[in-house]
Amino acid sequence: PKPAFMKLTTTPVVRAMTFTKQVFQDIVLPINKLEEQIDKSEEFFDTYPILVYPCRIYDHGEHRGQLRPPRPDQMVPGTKYGMFNDLGVYGVPRAVRERKRWDAVTAMRNMEAYTRSVGGYHFMYADTFLSREEFEEMFDLTAYEIVRKKYQAEGAFPHVYEKTKPEIDIVAVGKAYMDPLS
Fold first, then answer.
1. Residue 82 pairs with which residues in a beta bridge?
2. Which terminus of the chain has a smaller tally of CB atoms within 10 A, N or C?
3. Burial class of residue 20 in the structure, from the number of CB atoms within 10 Å of its CB (0-12 exposed, 13-18 middle, 19+ buried)
């Protein structure tokens, strides 16, 4: 089933639990930052095991897709791609397992800030806590916006950001469920 459908068909309490008491995130990060990203994952989520698998991001030129070209330090010498990896973090954070306070919103916002700082990307199916401005910093929407305008999709279809942001007020829900017994 589609994640969007699953989100819409869950009860408000179950939906809140999907991000306040557990983590389901896939994040694409430059592989030259592997040790650092694992440290950040432990700092923010402290849940194991994690999944790490390599992937390439090609430099197709400016504004040629939603992923920005890899930065020079991320490029593999003599190629047109940079080596990245998917960091999959799935499970219940240690603080939640130990019935301690865990602030899911702050943890995710910190991971998103780190991801942007190193030129990484969040998978669009997972919950994102990004503002519209941060989303547009992470993803290159130039070609997307040109096509939306050319085919008069503005107003007819939701913007990609609207499709990826949570359908609930994540900050309010995150605060409501931050304590171990809520």
1. 57, 75
2. N
3. buried
